Amino acid sequence: MADGRAQVAHGLETWLRGRGVDAEVEVWDRATVGLSQETWFVRVTTGARVIDAVLRLPTPASGSRAIVTQRAALQAVAGSDVPAPALLWFDDGDGNPFSRPFLVMARAPGEVPVGWHDIPEPRRTALAEQAIDILVALHSVDVARTPIGAGVSSPLLELGGLRRLFQRLEPLPAAVPAAFWWLENHAQPPPRRTALVHGDYRMGNLVVDGDGITGVLDWEMAAPGDPIADVTWCFIPVWELPGVDEQALVRRYAERSGSPVEAERFHWHRVLGFVRLAYYALAGTRAFDTGRSDDLRLAALRLQLPVTLDRLAATLAREPVS
Amino acid sequence: MSEGAPSAWPPVAADRLADAVVALAGRVAEPDVRAQLHALSGLLRNLGAENAGADARDSQERALAAALRDEDERGVLEALRRLSGVNRSAVVPVDWSAASGG
Lengths: 322, 102
Prior knowledge:
The structure holds 2 protein chains of 2 kinds.
Chain A: H1 5-18, E1 24-31, E2 38-46, E3 49-57, H2 65-77, E4 87-91, E5 102-106, H3 123-139, H4 159-167, H5 175-185, E6 195-197, E7 206-209, E8 212-216, E9 223-225, H6 227-234, H7 246-257, H8 263-289, H9 296-300, H10 305-316
Antiparallel strand pairs in A: 1-2, 2-3, 3-5, 4-5, 6-9, 7-8
Chain B: H1 14-25, H2 31-45, H3 54-69, H4 73-89, H5 96-101
């Protein structure tokens, strides 16, 4: 098939057979996710057992580390109160039919809303509270005792790493170096505690089924880090404003985690979050402009850049974002 | 080309094209293609808008650079706020729910 479904199905069947699993694999769809990893929806039939699953493969843009980190994160949260998909099979190496690492995880039932604004009240608030409770559960995992304990943070989550990433995209909008100047002048001391941080915890990575969150997806940025980074990112407006009572949700996080959320640290991470969003917009734009991708959604990300930078400026001025 | 000069063919308005692309998206079954079409309509609606407010942008960028040079935090934040307002006011918002979900 032109889009590679047959090759993917054959590859997984071959790999499973090599491990004594006689399975029939059907690939029934592929998610289109721009520069992110390849995501294939598969149905694996072994005898009378039918498993709806998701196969993920790295792309040159994501790098192999994305898959290996996800694998380690899914193992780290298995058995906890975090509703992450069960890891079914994985291969960290490249000696497999795909010639690159891959993982297969159970498919969480439900849909992934675009953002919080997509969900009507009162479900929105109820789901936002659930999201906070899941974050509390995630941050209570003893990260040092997990396969991810020795991992390093993604450059997207750190000031120095983001600065290096932006350097590849120069010339930059004037707001970006100004934001870095502010972030460096207001750098925060190391966090009081280090937790297992998801790194991209937001509605666009949560599976919702009815009134419940059934899955937390996209763990490729998971690492030991400052838990406040996840709390700020949870409701940052990637597109439209989330329309949730953020202060109440932050209070809920502090009460349930037993960890105070320091206002200045929260503010700093929020500024960093908007800088990160600006990076995504610029990187997507550049990928289209240089011909690395024909995805028109990446081309259109340039139109979100002034919106994001305006929200960044409002945040720096401690004004509400619009 | 000077304004008002005769053109070789009637120009098409970007907004009209964008509306037509949204209408086309409504007739397409494939979610990914619908999403791509909604993104395209957003691009069409904003064609050439990146140059709007060039004088105001230039002035605010110079104010921002001066404040950074002076390490004047208040001046930086104020110039940044004005500059971002100029840039954002040029954009016609994209329907990202449609462009994301198809």
